[in-house]
Design a protein that fits this description.
The chain has about 80 residues and is an alpha+beta fold. The chain has helices spanning about 20-25, 45-60, 65-80; strands spanning about 35, 40-45.
Length: about 80
C-alpha cells in the first residue's frame, strides 16, 4: 500500500480510504481497534487481534497440547481436592 494523506475532521474523525478498508475487510459499523504504538496509530480488527494473540501463544505450546483441556483438568482437580 502507498501512503495516503488525509485531514483530521471535526470531532477527530478521519476517512480510511476505500483501498485500506477493503484490505482490512472493513465495512461501515464494524468494530476496529486503535493502538498508539511508537508514536503511530495502528488500526486493526478484533479478528486480527485474536489471530495475533493465538500466534503469540502458539510459540509456547507444544504440538498436540490443549491448554483448554489442561485448564478443565486443573479445575476438576481443585473441585475434588
Amino acid at each position: 500500500m502507498i501512503d495516503v494523506r488525509t485531514k483530521l475532521a471535526e470531532g477527530g474523525r478521519i476517512v480510511i480510504p476505500v483501498e485500506y478498508r477493503q484490505a482490512l475487510g472493513l465495512r461501515v459499523g464494524d468494530d476496529i481497534i486503535l493502538r498508539l504504538e511508537d508514536g503511530e496509530v495502528r488500526i486493526f480488527t478484533p479478528q486480527q487481534a485474536i489471530k495475533r494473540a493465538q500466534e503469540l501463544v502458539k510459540q509456547f505450546v507444544a504440538e498436540g497440547q490443549s491448554l483448554s483441556d489442561e485448564l478443565l483438568q486443573e479445575r476438576k482437580t481443585e473441585r475434588e481436592g
